[in-house]
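Narrative summary of target 7.
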Amino acid sequence: ARRVTVRNFGWWRGWLALALIPLAALIAQPLVNLLVTGSPVASGGSAKSLLGVVPFDLGYVITRIVENFIRMWREFLLPTGEASAYVVIGVGVLALIGAASLARKRTVFALALIAWWIGLALAISTLDTAFWHFKRYQMPIVITFIPLAVIGVELLLRQIQARRVNFLRTRQQALIAAAALALIGSGAFTQIEFYYRYVINIGYVRDQPYQMALWLRQNTPSDAVIAVHDVGMMRFMGERTTLDIVGLTTPDAAAYWRNGPGSVGEFLVREHPDYIAAYGVGHGLGLGYLAATDLYADPLALFTVTLDPVRNVALAAATQGIYRPDWTAAESAGEHLMFVQAGMIDAAAIPIASVNVADSASERAHDYAWSLVRPVNGFPTEYNQFSYQGCTDPRCTIMDGGRRINGAESFTLPVRPHEDALLITRLHPVDTGAYDVYANDALIATRVIPPLPGAWLDVPVLIPAEQITSEAITIRIVPRLEGDYQPYRHDLYQDLPAPVTPAGDPLATFQTGAIWLHLRDAISVEGERAILPLTWASDGQAHGDYQVFVHVLNADDQIVAQADGRPLAGNLPFGNWIIGAFHDTITIDLTNVPAGTHRVILGIYDPLTGERLPPENAADRVDEFARLFIAELEVE
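Modeled conformation, tokenized:
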């Protein structure tokens, strides 16, 4: 028979004939995806591809792809350690020799095979999971090594036969026997080790996800929706509708997963599954964020397996659980109770527009964009459950997802033109600093971020009517801090209540008249607490992150009780005040205060430097320590 080569078949016909088969296979899946889902990208690719890494860094992606490609071929040719369990030692080298032999003859098959090796290896290298699960993504390459290794062995034997020297003439049979024994021995080891790994991993699946699936089938309603991390067993053996957290089988979920735990939490809140069957802290810090909230509120069952740290590939952690979420704290995420109590917005106020940061759907709807100037200190998003300082109302406990940003963020909101608007931004204020707020590229305000880790902080910005000239407004926020700016939500309000106008003259002013302090009512005693009702007002020029202290002094000017913190129970630094006034109440513990008449004084200081902010227009009420006399207090 005539050998089919590039020369005698016509290079383009040979390539075309062979290329059409894998090309058709490559095109078929994206085409089906496009017809069924509207997107050519498979959900599995979205969840696993390095091209979808967040935040996207082209240099990082290229480096990882190159590293994966080099490692893959190194382990094919010199399988040591973990790789030796999957590729027989020597087979990769023999396959390469066989392929080189065919390539020298310029057969279409050889050239197509080499192109296939390189192309498929590069495609696999784009996966974050390129080396997972017994090299399963690499097996289409490994399987081609077997026939090519046979060709390689044949070539070596022919070379030995053709170039006989004294050494080979006397020891040829021994050399062949030794090589055969080495290959057989390596193959036997690979088969035994692979079989052992297969057996123990089947056991892990039986002891954890299979038991979870049985539990779900026996203990949950047939119409229950289960959010899962490992999806297959739960769906088919559990016989329940599943919501795939990773996004392999649930449309659009991969975008949330790639953005980190904050986005995953938002995805779960958006979908409201009846149960969560997934890993927690053992899987890593990511799902640990979710486990620390009421998403994992009610643990119904836990399933723990002792894992072999080397041979395990079936399970992502030793423990998975089934949980019933409590959505109460998520339902409070849209409320700004502290500002309602201060009278800055009406109790019945509903924002005209909101950006739920870390929720991919909400971000897309508002053209949300964010950037980095350096790597963030953790995941791109986080999910947390905190409360506001000084708030005992259960509605102040909120679970929410947000981003870590050190470049800038921007978004567009619908708005009624020529009307004042109030933007309230929820932050997790971990790193101290400030940020500038722009509305349609005009600088509107600079806001401060005090150090309040483990608590929420709402920051108001008043956007004057003259800056709102159309039915949409673009907000850009540029942080200035060494760490990360962490926004969780932006709400825009209109129909604002009329600003409170304090009656009478102020006790004092501060910052060249930018701040007014009024005593709203007489100081009172309730049990063992003194209640000091104040009203603060500003022209919008207040600045800095000052704290207010109140001292109760006895007749010898000794401090017998005190309170310290930012206004509005610690939630409103001076630099975040808007034009107008708000009510504040300071509570002082009188437990150890003796009976008698005491003086109540107030001061303002910088918590970093200790510098006092001197009162103005109240010389007769100010002492040498820049403390303002407020009133006398009778303690019985």
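The chain has a mean pLDDT of 88.
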